[in-house]
Every structure is written in structure tokens, then in C-alpha cells.
């Protein structure tokens, strides 16, 4: 409903100030999350005639009604819940972070597109999103997808996004969309931007939403230090930058969403998945038992048999890609660490923690001298060269070889 007049504008401005002030109180620790959510939602509902240009429809109407996105697919329950919870900017519960650790082919990118478009629609429904968020009238409000590389950003994510926008009755008939090679411009200074970790230009925008797409494909800080790469920022750095941008621009409302299947145990997405479960304002999509979704759990149109060839070719990588059960290292030389761990009387428990197995007696140290520094060197072989283990120590000016063990490769075995 359109309204005008000084009294209406004054009421709207007061509502905005009250909402922003309440959100600031949360950050300063002066009030509780629940109290602010009630105040914020209450103010929006109480004054919706003066706040909204058009009252928003619910999430399912937005996705399926022929006048909106008009989808010919139906999201699964966990997909719908993730899109709904990560696109709320008026209603409770209002989360500021989301984590989806899920198998490849589960529809993570599709969900991220719907989150973006839902927030664009909700912003457009406001008389003035800039007034609502107490911004300068000509300010932009940005929604950014950050991919690992420019090729993925352009050829996969942005291509899917533009196709959905072009096919949507909502954006064809009601909300104009002006598309360039990496930006979609909407009315009311709302923009959808496709960025990547190799280019820092996205850091200059004003984001209410940043989606970190396949965050585990970004190199870690340790990997960047080893490669001495100066071109791209690691997963931890991109996340920290995204969080500071969103929180400084839209405190208490803006969102960061981390999506990925895990590349190795203890990777970024696995750490965020574990930490997010302990954070009140983070929505973590997971099964009832707390584990991440396999591809076919999150996307019921897929089943495990669809990926049988992957499991035959590389079962370790297949478990990482589709079941979120990765190895201990990215592209590990030793694919199965259990035999190595058991040689040292160690094992892996149900939580993937390395523990002392206590299956072997403590080995004798009768021929080791207390106070002597021993040096151990291993030289591995694979198919042709011998593998060797040497232990030595220094005795005055002499080097004493305590042990030399050689392992010869067997034909047709590593």
C-alpha cells in the first residue's frame, strides 16, 4: 500500500530508529536476543502499512506461485528450511550466519540462488530499504556470492542465477532486472554481485548478504603460506573479511552463509559446522543426529546408486564428496591412515579423533640411553625404490647407527 505525507514519513523514521537502536543494544550486550527479536518483529508488523510498498508473501508462495518464481521443482524439507531461515530480514528467528556442510549435487548452489532472490524481493517490498536500514537515500544494498575462482563465479553460479531471473514471472513482470557480466541491478539500488576469492573488488560493496560458495575449495592460510601465493586470500581470511563487512553495514540483520562439501578432516567448513552448533545466531543445517547431510539426504531426487562409478574409482574421495566423510588431508598420499596409526598403537574413534588404542604392550627402551638425542629419518618408496628407516645418535665425534630397516617393494603393490 502506498502512503505519503509528513506524519507517515515521520512515523516511519521513528520506527527505523527504534529498530536500529534495539539491534545496537544486542551488540553492546544491553539486552537479550529474544527481546530485540520481539521488538523488531513487532515494530514491522505494527507499522507494515507505512513500511511496505507491497506486503511480502510467504516463502512457499514466493517459490511456487506462478506470479512469483513459479518453480517447477519442489524443494525438500531441509532445503526449504535452509532457504527460509537464511532469507529472513523481518521475521524471527533471525539468524546472522548459516552453515551448510553437504554433499556434492545436493543443491547448495540452487538454495543460495533462492536465498539471494528472496532477500532481493523482501527489500523491494519496502517503501525504501535505505530508509528502513537508516542509510543514505542513494546507497546501494548488495548481495554477494564469493566463489573460489572467477570461472566458477561466472560459468556456474552466475549463469544459473541469471537463467532463473530470466524465467521468473516476478522479475519479468514486476521487478526489473538489468544484467551485466557479473552484476544484476534491481530497482531501489539493490544489486546481486558475483565475486571470487582471486579478486578483492567485492570487498568495497555494502553487503546485507555474503555467500561463501564451496568455501573448502579456497586454500587455507597454511596452504597459502606454503605456496607463497599473493593472488588469493585463504578461507579464514575471506570469512573474516565477509563477517566484518556484513556486521558493520547491517548489524544484527546481515548474513554470512558458508557452503561446501569437506575436502579434509578439520577443514574450514567442518570447523564452522561444529562451532556454529554452539552459536545462538547461527543456523546449521544438519540431520536430527547432528551429522551433516549426505547428497541424497538433502536432495531426495538423488540416491547413492547414482554415484556408484565414483565409489568404484575412488571410494575415499566419493565419501568426502557425497557423504561429508573426508580423509585427513587434501590429496593425501596415504589414502587410508588406519594401518599406519595402528602401527603406532593408535586408532580413530567415532568422532574421528586419533586416540591411543592400547592394543600393544609398551615397547622396550632397554637399548636406548637416557639423555641422548636420537635422530630418526624415513625415506619412502612407492613401486621401484626401497623404503628405509634409520635411527642414529652422536657419540663424541662419531655417528652411531642404532637401526637401519629396509623395506623392498613387492611386484604390483605400493
Describe it for me?
Helices cover 38% and strands 17% of the residues. By secondary structure, it is of the alpha/beta class. The protein has an eight-stranded mixed sheet, with helices on both faces. A hairpin with a 2-residue loop joins strand 12 and strand 13 (398-407). Helix 5 (77-86) crosses helix 6. The longest helix has 23 residues, at 6-28.
Question: Could you tell me the strand content as a percent range?
Answer: 15-25%
What is the terminal separation in angstroms? 73 Å
Helix-strand makeup class: alpha/beta
The residue fraction in helices comes out at 25-40%
Overall residue-averaged pLDDT value: 84
Shape assignment: elongated
Q: Order of strands across the widest beta sheet?
A: 3-4-5-2-6-7-1-8
> Low-confidence stretches at least 5 residues in length (pLDDT < 50)?
1-12, 227-232
Separate helix tally? 16
Q: Please provide the ordered H/E string of secondary-structure elements.
A: HHHHHEHHEHHEEEEHHEHEHHHHEEEEE
- How many beta-strand segments? 13
Gyration radius, rounded: 27 Å
Sheet with the most strands?
A: 8 strands, mixed
Give structural attributes.
single chain, 414 residues, alpha/beta, 8-stranded mixed sheet, 3-stranded antiparallel sheet
Amino acid at each position: 500500500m502506498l502512503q505519503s505525507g509528513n506524519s507517515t514519513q515521520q512515523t516511519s523514521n521513528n520506527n527505523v530508529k527504534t529498530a536500529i537502536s534495539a539491534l545496537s543494544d544486542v551488540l553492546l550486550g544491553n539486552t537479550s536476543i529474544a527481546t530485540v527479536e520481539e521488538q523488531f518483529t513487532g515494530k514491522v508488523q505494527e507499522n507494515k502499512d507505512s513500511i511496505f510498498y507491497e506486503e511480502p508473501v510467504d516463502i512457499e508462495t514466493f517459490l511456487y506461485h506462478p506470479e512469483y518464481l513459479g518453480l517447477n521443482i519442489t524443494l525438500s524439507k531441509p532445503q526449504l528450511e535452509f532457504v527460509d531461515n537464511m532469507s529472513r530480514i523481518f521475521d524471527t528467528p533471525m539468524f546472522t550466519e548459516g552453515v551448510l556442510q553437504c554433499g556434492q549435487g545436493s543443491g547448495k548452489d540452487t538454495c543460495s540462488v533462492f536465498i539471494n532472490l528472496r532477500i532481493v524481493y523482501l527489500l523491494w517490498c519496502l517503501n525504501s530499504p535505505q530508509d528502513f536500514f537508516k542509510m543514505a537515500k542513494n546507497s546501494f544494498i548488495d548481495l554477494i556470492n564469493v566463489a573460489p575462482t572467477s570461472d566458477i563465479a561466472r560459468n556456474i553460479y552466475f549463469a544459473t542465477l541469471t537463467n532463473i531471473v530470466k524465467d521468473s514471472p516476478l522479475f519479468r513482470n514486476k521487478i526489473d532486472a538489468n544484467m551485466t557480466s557479473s552484476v544484476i541491478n534491481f530497482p531501489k539500488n539493490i544489486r546481486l554481485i558475483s565475486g571470487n576469492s582471486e579478486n578483492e573488488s567485492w570487498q568495497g560493496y555494502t553487503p546485507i548478504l555474503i555467500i561463501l560458495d564451496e568455501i573448502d575449495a579456497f586454500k587455507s592460510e597454511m596452504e597459502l603460506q606454503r605456496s607463497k601465493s599473493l593472488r588469493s586470500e585463504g578461507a579464514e581470511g575471506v570469512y573474516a573479511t565477509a563477517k566484518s563487512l556484513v556486521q558493520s553495514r547491517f548489524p544484527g540483520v546481515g548474513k554470512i552463509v558458508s557452503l561446501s562439501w569437506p575436502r579434509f578432516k578439520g577443514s574450514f567448513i567442518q570447523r564452522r559446522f561444529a562451532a556454529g552448533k554452539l552459536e545462538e545466531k547461527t543456523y546449521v543445517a544438519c540431520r536430527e543426529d547432528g551429522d551433516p547431510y549426505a547428497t541424497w539426504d538433502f536432495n531426495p531426487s538423488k540416491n547413492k546408486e547414482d554415484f556408484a562409478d565414483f565409489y568404484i574409482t575412488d571410494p575415499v574421495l566419493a565419501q568426502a564428496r557425497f557423504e561429508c566423510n573426508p580423509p585427513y588431508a587434501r590429496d593425501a598420499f596415504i589414502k587410508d591412515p588406519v594401518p599406519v596409526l595402528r602401527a603406532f598403537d593408535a586408532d580413530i574413534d567415532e568422532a574421528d579423533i586419533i586416540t591411543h588404542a592400547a592394543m600393544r604392550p609398551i615397547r622396550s627402551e632397554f637399548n636406548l640411553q637416557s639423555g641422548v638425542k636420537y635422530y630418526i629419518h624415513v625415506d619412502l618408496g612407492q613401486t621401484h625404490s626401497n623404503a628405509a628407516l634409520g635411527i642414529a645418535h652422536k657419540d663424541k665425534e662419531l655417528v652411531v647407527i642404532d637401526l637401519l630397516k629396509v623395506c623392498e617393494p613387492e611386484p604390483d603393490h605400493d
